[in-house]
Write a structure and sequence with these properties.
Blueprint (H helix, E strand, L loop, with lengths): L3 E6 L2 E7 L11 H4 L17 E2 L7 E4 L3 E5 L6 E8 L4 H12 L7 E8 L6 E7 L7 E10 L2 E10 H6 L1 H10 L1 E2 L17 H18 L3 E8 L2 E9 L15 E2 L4 H14 L9 H4 L8 H6 L17 H4 L10 H6 L16 H15 L5 H17 L8 H6 L6 E3 L5 E3 L12 H4 L2 E2 L1 H12 L13 H6 L11 E3 L4 E3 L6 E8 L2 E8 L4 E7 L5 H16 L5 H22 L12 E4 L3 E8 L2 E5 L4 E8 L5 E5 L8 E4 L7 E5 L4 E6 L3
Antiparallel strand pairs: 1-2, 3-11, 4-5, 5-6, 6-10, 7-8, 8-9, 9-10, 12-13, 12-22, 14-17, 15-16, 18-19, 19-20, 20-21, 21-22, 23-24, 23-30, 24-25, 25-26, 26-27, 27-28, 28-29, 29-30
Helix pairs in contact: 5-17, 5-18, 6-11, 6-12, 11-12, 17-18
Length: 667
Amino acid sequence: MKHAWTVFAAGAAVCTVPSFFCGAHAQATLAEFAKLELKTGAASDPVPQMAEFREPEGWSVERREQATILRPAERANFIAIVEVGAQPNAATAAASAWQVLGPSRPWPVRLVSNRAGRDGWDASAIVDYQVPPSLHTVVVAAPHLSKGRWTVLIQSSAEDVAERRGAAFGLVWDTLQPAGYVRESFAGRHAHKLDAERVQSIEAFVTDAMKRLEIPGAALALIQDRQIVYEGGLGIREVRRPEQIDMHTRFLVASNTKGMTTLLLAKLVDERRLSWDQPVVRAYPAFKLGDRDLTSRVLVRHLICACTGLPRRDFEWTFGRSRETPASIVFSELATTNPTSGFGSTFQYSNTLAAAAGYVAGHVLYPDEEIGAAYDRAMRDKVFRPLGMADTTFSTDIALSGDHASPHGEDLDGANVPANPAFEYLIAPYRPAGGAWSSVHDMALYVRNELLSGTSPEGRQLFSRANVDERRKPGVSIGKNSRYGLGLVEDTTWGVPVFHHGGGMPGYQSDVIFIPQAGIGAVLLTNADSGSQLLAPFMRRLLEVLYDGVPQAQSDVESAAAMRLGKLRQRRAELTTPPDALHLKREYRSPELGRLIVRAAGGRRIFHFTGWESEVASKRNSDGTTSYVTVAPASGGYEFATDSGPGNQSLVIQDGQHEYPYEAVND
């Protein structure tokens, strides 16, 4: 939920990083990039094509002697695969790739993050560049080494295009591999049972990864067929406190709520109160989008398919909502939201639309109740109680008053410390999309229900198999081997269908996983932002243990830990505190996001928003402007750029597809 631009990595469809981890190419504008030409003159050392990759459907392809350039309909944006042969290191390989693309050269290198070799590569890296935020551009280079020769992937795209076409960009990232390489596949292999030795191996892996990534606490569950074979806590609830995490400790499971919300929809379809293919306006006549035609086309299943073309508007609840905001705000927000891509054409994640799915279900069951209360009651009656999920609640007050894991994030110096939980209240109006607090025990019961396709361990049919499985049908693509269903992702990267969904809110990161053909499931809950870097390696390690896979999860964690520390050091070097407050006014207002109060606390400056606040540091940009970056643990990384015009009377923050100006209020 941070201020994030889209970056892609092999093995994951889409991952995001705070804006200060990204770079942009500003010596040439995007329009100039659209006209890039190779330098004249024959190459003295012809470079063979060393890599293969999949081209996004409908994109233009330009093939050159050393480069292939792929462009979407927005032709000023591109992704290029450049062969540069033998080079001393990743940084020089990236520089050589820019020379091949010529005539422009990139901004100075900001950071080179080395990564472990994967998918046939001996080594790889991510190269970021120094850029001013005013360019609204994502540019990143990813050199890959195989047999002494470098292949460099370069992406240059406007932020809105990077988000809107993230799945297509991600396809190229995910499929880039040395020519002729065959990825390891577990297809046709028999999965081992989770005996004591394998369970201990998984537990030891998580424990070691927690130390490397500085995660204070986690909860782990492993499910096999009808049995929960392991469930328990690892580490502590809060740094500098002795309380240990146990199987009933609550975590905010964030977007893992979506799969539970679609389980509620499945139950209502079982009861013939709803149909997957019923227009939403028939179930909830007040439903309205900014596009009238799209409003009439949206069916119940589309509310949570990430396929309607509606973009995210998360900043409007991050900055503009309070803990008292009613659930009904979801529908007023949707009424002013228009699609930015064609219906069904690409993956676009909308928490607002997913929240509407739950509220429509609640309204159908309890039409006389306020829609938030109706949803809460519906989930309690139709999902939580039947599954025995007694620890699960949507009340942050209840969660924080009992056995809970505190959120953690890095402070300005990179230490993982407890975070103010005020931020966690902001999700309440959108809770069907990400507001459930739960324990590893309860989430294991939820995963077991998935493995049993809606049947209780005693054989009672709680949900029909047909409608439980309907949620898993592959929908819109989010990469070569991943498709989004209804609040669940199907990943076939390793030859066996793995269903999962991640969840992230400030200070909490989690994943639920189930492999139906093996009868195996897993839950991992963590209480730190750095837990996000454990989720993909954890899935990989689970598969290694089940299928005797080539060990790579451990080196993935080691690589992630090194990258994390490098980025934290770079962030600290770029930020100044106390900040240069020359351009700051006392108060700002945004029509969409509300008030921003700037408060002095000694030499520090505090940005106070509607529902939370953070100390800020200043960052000097390469175009001479100053940005102010939030640095509060778990809610750091939001960057407010100053207006480059006369007087500096505004601050601007942007997400992938929206720009939000805050205008100064005169004293």
